[in-house]
Amino acid sequence: MRSVWLDTDAGFDDWLTMLMLGVHPDLRWLGVSVVAGNAPLPVTLANALRIRHHYQLRVPIFAGRPSPLNAPLQTAEYVLGPRGMRTAGSYLPDVASSPDGDDAVAAMLDALNRSPEPVTVIAIGPLTNVASVLKAQPSIVSRIEELVFMGGSTDRGNHTPAAEFNICVDPEAADIVCQTPGLKRRMFGLNVCRQVLLERQHVEAVQAWSGERARWLADHFDGYQRIRSADGVVPMPLYDPVVTAWLSDPDLFTFQPARVDVEVEGRLTRGMTVCDFRVGPSRAANVEVAMTADGAAVIEAVLQAARKHC
Ligand code: BDR
Ligand code: CA
Question: 21 pLDDT band (50/70/90 cuts)?
Answer without folding.
Answer: very high
